[in-house]
Amino acid sequence: MIVLVIGASGLIGATLCARLGAEGHEVVRAVRSRAWNGLFKGRTVVIDVAKALEAEAWLPHLDGVDAVVNCAGVLQDSARDNTNKVHAAGASALFAACERAGVRRVIHFSAIGVDREQPSAFSASKLAGDHALMKRDLDWVILRPSVVLGRPAFGASALFRGLAALPLLPTMPGTGLLQVVQLDDVVSTVLILLGRESPSRLTLELAGPEALTMSEVVARYRQWLGWGRAREFVLPGRVAAMLYRSGDLAGLLGWRPPMRTNAAREIARGATGALGPWKLATGLQPSSLASALAASPPTVQERWFARLYFVKPAIFVVLPFFWIATGIISLTTGWRSGVELLLNTAFEPLAGPAVVAGALADMLVGALIAWRPTSRVGLWGAIAISSFYAMAGTILRPDLWNEPLGPLMKILPILVLHFCALAILEER
Known about the structure:
The chain is of the alpha/beta class. The protein is built from 17 helices and 11 strands. It has helices at residues 11-22, 55-58, 83-101, 121-134, 156-164, 183-193, 214-225, 237-252, 261-269, 276-282, 289-294, 300-308, 311-331, 335-341, 351-370, 375-396, 411-423, and strands at residues 2-6, 26-31, 43-46, 67-70, 105-109, 139-145, 148-149, 168-171, 181-182, 202-206, 231-234.
């Protein structure tokens, strides 16, 4: 069977593609960015669901395809994402193309509870996409999973690992119960429903066998990682709201933090559902979180990732602040000090312009680091500028290596921090 998987680089899509390939199916991976092109074996299609809003955009990629699995999804509108275009308009164009191309089997991922309540643009657009598929003359199946957790560290799987590493665990006010579902169970469901004799034109909720609070989910991860239960404290509502708004701001800069306003609205509703229809349709027995974790012992990289999870956003807040603030100080209160550093050197006649150029360069790399699409360029720019400062300082003012406050010596840990930032930049 030839299966087109939309969102093949995501948590569900990547694992599904691997399982399909292992079971002898031919997989056509649809990804949004060319950065993923060439990383997979087999056929890869570069297409942005948010821009492919007409059936004609999809038809060339459906040639010879037997089934389509749509795993594409975004949490919240941002500089890089649009919930309505991905979940509703783009998905609707895909379904229309499938109908025209005669690709009857379509499995579409929605989200649990969207038919009961739509507290955000995420769930409202997901429901719109569901309705668009239901209207089509196709052998469709809509899967509405709860919070999906698995060995890959992405999205909620990453967040819970990061929370598990905190010695003091903040409990968010107004969060609902979660019937977290295992990634392996979700993927197995798709494989079963791709069978020629499998049922169609049905909607299934995919939920785990136990309803847990967020604190209980984190406790399971802490136990798995070999750490005792963390001390808990209730995060004040205003502080929680400020954190979610900070996540929204990061989203406007192109980052994808899991803690954003839409997440707060969705998690307040909770993520619970009925297991019966799912078990009846597939014969699967969903795994509990504890049993799934016990079957996959943690390794040192799991502990590293957990401990670095909240260090990463701190790094990408501090570095832009450091570079931009340095530039502003150089142009204002630190102007005289900057010029005096170049007195009695070969650059004395150009001391003023040199300080201005350095300040502007500092602010530029800070802005590049803050903007996610250019953060890698900004980090390399910062490394280049830091290296230049170290070499120029050594030539013009070698005495600064012997200063008690170490203005040149401090460049070394700054360089190391930028290389660390490059190492942990990727989100998936």
